[in-house]
Amino acid sequence: MAEISTTKRIWGWYFFDWASQPYNTLMLTFIFGPYFGQTAAEALIASGMSEQAAEAEAQALWGYGLTIAGVMIALLAPILGSVADTSGRRMPWIWVFSALYVVGAWGCWYTAPDSFSATWALVFFGMGLIGMEFATIFTNAYLPSLGPKEDLGRISGSGWGFGYVGGVLALAIMLVFFQAGDEGRTMLGFEPLLGLDPATGADTRVVGPLTALWFAVFMIPFFLWVRDDAPPEDAHYRIGEGLRDLWQTIKGLPHHPSLLAYLGSSMFYRDALNGMYTFGGIYALGVLDWSILEVGIFGILAAISGAIFAWIGGHADRKYGPLPVIVTCCVVLIFTACLIVGLSPEAVFGMPVAEGSLLPDRLFYVAGLLIGAAGGAVQSASRNMLTKQANQERMTEAFGLYALSGKATTFLAPWLIAVTTDITNNQRLGITPLIALFCIGLIMLIWVKPNGESA
User: Fold this and answer.
1) Inter-CA distances, 59 with 18, 26, 52, Å
2) pTM score > 0.85 for this model?
3) Does residue 1 have a pLDDT over 50?
């Protein structure tokens, strides 16, 4: 077999971000998440619940569903990562979880309003989310092998930016050709392709098959150009040995205070960011009374911002290191979370606005641009930061622990939002736990060494 060049290998790795990003952009944040919130709320209203209570309950259901998926990812991620490192094989796991991604995304088509089941909608969505998250763990572990240490920040940032461009393009295709607005036509005035009927939600539900097909097609370069190193001759999937190695790593974490502090910090700030992504669209529908089409346009702007600033952040990472990039982004995201909580159609930070004022909507667009910019840069810098903190020989295990740290409050953040929303019966106040999570993550960065324990 002909040797694969480093350039092709890097581009193959970039294509995973391109292929997988639509699950975050279309499914989690801007199309299916809001569709779930809207359709679940309508079903609850039909059962006799008031509109405000139904919208809050729909947000809570979404949060509880993500909590369950997050717990499963948190428990299994470091175990599978350790087993993969012990065996020397990552690619078979990527195939398995890619299949789960495709099946779960496609299954979201079967969520029509007239037969809507919140349970089945969350099951299918959760399958795809779990597939995406686990595939990301194993592909991220290839990053240290793609270039010299000083160049990994740029590579990570360029990959993340490339992924955002893929998300923008997929979202644009969805809005131009499929997603109907209030008049039954798409953003450019077309009728939805394939005769999809907005009355049945088909113009929105098609996001599931579109996301599945997008991933299946654009993963081809990854599978063609990315390869595992040759495993040891006696390598097998030794679960017992993998678990023992993982336990030794966990026991040794107190002896690596910088890595431990970084995992703790990222546990909070990444999960607060995921909370913003997860509930942003549902918030816009429920609090600002936007349509799914408006949320999609908002998503395009946020994703373009994310693509640009992931690339800029990657170059800043190369020049200054990932830690200053992460700190700056956390400060921006704290401000943004406060801005979101302070917005309602009637007031901005408690100051009344004229009826029909566009100021709350415009400020929410600003919030979206800031989330995209800071979110893209912080996620790119964060995965590069782990390569500086972790054992280079146990990188998949390290990214498994990284996923564990992320999911420890990824299921906590939706749960806090769900519980706060239930208690206050108010979607806007339900977002407030994110501010505290960002602040905790920022404070814990004080104990993180920029280049790890070797510095």
Assistant:
1) 28, 17, 11
2) no
3) no
